[in-house]
Amino acid sequence: MSVDFRPGDEPNRAHTPVPPLGQRPVRDFWDRLQIVLQPVGGLFTALAIGLLGFRSSDYLERRQAADTNARLYSELMSRREESESALRKDMFQTIIGSFVNANARGTDLNSEVLNLELLAYNFHESLNLKPLFMDMRRRIVEGQTKATTAEGRAEYQGYMTRLERVAREIARKQIIVLEGVGKRFDRTIDMTTDPIGTTLEPATLTLESTPATFSLDVLDVNLPDREILVGLSVDTPDSIQGRQTKSAAFTVSYFDFPMIDNTRLAGGDRCAVVLNGFSEHSADITLVYFPGAYASLKEKPYYSEVIESIRRANMGLQDPD
User: Fold this and answer.
1) What does the pLDDT look like over 269-283, one tens digit per residue?
2) Number of structural domains found in the chain
3) 256 domain-assigned
4) pTM for this entry
5) Domain of 310?
């Protein structure tokens, strides 16, 4: 049976013409590059995700290890401080007991001088040890006066030398610390003539943009005890009340330590006078001017000084210059 197609009729099945072999489209360089890069791009994406995960995991591990080490270090330091505090507490109780307990005190000055040396070297920043030094010096002088032989007097003189040496060493260490945060100047008093009434050359020291002029007067000299009565005058400028002058008189000896024996100035700053050397020819003294925060641990700042320091700090932060 034959089927006749009329013009305009379409066949029922889809018909896709296939171009001849010689007429197929030719792919250029970019088409070929796209075909090659499609799987490579997926591979690079997978590698990037894997590398990012590895780096993130490695960073987290290192961060966790650092936190663990820091926590372990803090625990070790805390235990070390607790051990040192317990040791210092036991040492303090044992040593101070030998001075306070009258029954424990004997006539062995060598042991008592040794205990005072241990106490001074370990607690000189927190305790005012001048009364112990003065009492020990009094006992040494009494023993030296009562000694009937040259050997006995020489023994007591050796105790006095040890006492003064440890006091001068502590004062020197404290001056080095205070000089690092403050200012100082040195003066020499001529002892060949009568120095009473002498006014030493004044000096102006500046601490945190606050200048202060210091003047020292020699009011009295105690040659046997190696003490000097000093008159101190401090002039400081004040934007509201004008120039302020503060005066004080005190005795300076080897047993006055700057972190403990100091003069409070305006704004909470401190100054101290230290006796470095004393002889029949001259006496060397040092004045150190330092912030009140570096005074001894027993010194507590007043609330007004704390508020004033905070106010000045805030004003400094608000200053555009």
Assistant:
1) 899 999 999 998 999
2) 1
3) yes
4) 0.64
5) 109-315
